Amino acid sequence: MKRILVLLALLAFSVGLAQQSGGTLIAAWAQDPVGLDPHITSAYSSFQILENILDTLVTLDAEQNLQPSLAESWEVSEDGLTLTFRLREGVMFSNGRALSADDVVYTYNRVLDPETGSGSAWKLGGVTEISAPDDRTVVFSLENPNPGLITKLAVDKTMGIIAKENVEDGSISTQPIGTGPFMITDFQPGVKVVLEHNPNYWQEGLPYLDAIEIRIITDESVRRTALVTGDVDWAISIPAQSVAELKGRDDVVVDETPAGSYWYIGVNTRRDPISDAKVRQAISYAINRDQIVQAATFGIAQPTQDPIPSSSAWSYNYAPYEQSLEKAKELLAEAGVGDGFELEIMPTTQYEESIRIAQVLQAQLAPLGISASIRTLEWAEWLEEEGAGNYDTYVCSWNVLVDPDDFFYAQQRTGEVFNFTGYSNPTVDELLDQGRLAQNPDERREIYAQINKQIVDDAPYIYLYNPLNINAYKPYVKNYAARPDQAIRFVNTWLDR
Prior knowledge:
Helix content is 31%, strand content 22%. By secondary structure, it is α+β, with helices and mostly antiparallel strands.
């Protein structure tokens, strides 16, 4: 009898293991990745894939706490000017080469090199040197303390460690080599990306999946249908209008959590009359954010007038713009455009809610005499026009934000690479620099409160709402969870059909 019980226990254990291994997950992606070089691309659709290819020195768990990754431990000197990371042993790239501290140094120096064209150098603010005293030790030397630096090393795949040979042979833009749980084996732009289990992955027994086939399905209604019919197992986003219906089904799991993200109107501060803060404020007073949320997300987002969501410990909930057409008209008159003017709004086909937002804005601005036209562009062209400043206003979101510096620095500091609006305020610049140096949490909170207020008042960005991060999948997709940092991680996921 005892032997039978042991055999049954072993059988149950083996069945459990079988359920956690093998198979290919079919995933529906909303946007085509725009390049896969983590230091060149700025497309979130690319980072969503790189999340499963590249590892960082440290990472965030589901509760957004720092955890070891490639670095098994780290230390910060008492003066905050030296960060020392100790790499774990036995880590290999997917091509079979061993990881060393030199690879980490090479990666971050490439981020900092102006010739790389990286938009991520700002994340390493204050770093003067990165060195490798031995094969397993990496040292960051800073000119000033930067309390948010370690979080930035964790949250963003622009900080993922790459292989030098991958850059030298040019393959990094289509087939980046990392130490992560999966590796890219097929990339057909506009069609699919195939990720296969990395046989050299350092976490023993992981990942469970053999492969992930990412299908590019840009039409949100088609994504929903593919999920319901079982053509795909998992979908990155579903139509907002379908969320309530899908929650009522037994054959779909709707997984949602507040996201570190915001949707906004970006205003070109170099063009008249929107170069005048009063005109931008008038637009903010004129719009009805509740109506925008209802039209764009069918009510499943939180209207906001500042960027940091209420779920964050850094939230301020500064809201000076209660809708008032009368106040908006007064400001336009003071700016000398009381009779109205023409304005272009630029959404993108890649985000259907950006088009819905633009249509509502067009109607809401009409009572002010603002004649708004809508120029809708494909994603790649939209990114080019935004980067070149060829727009009046655009509609988009900013994602993967954790530290308060993430919400402001790259977008609002004078001359930064993602400051597409041309906004420049010396007071804000000084405060942003102070925020990076302050080590006392209370002092940081006060500094970012001032930053938050000034940017909302100046309105280079007109904030609209904080979204939810929503993923949907079949019930047999196990051990996956939507995350507030919007990371998509399949390393612990398996299929139990």
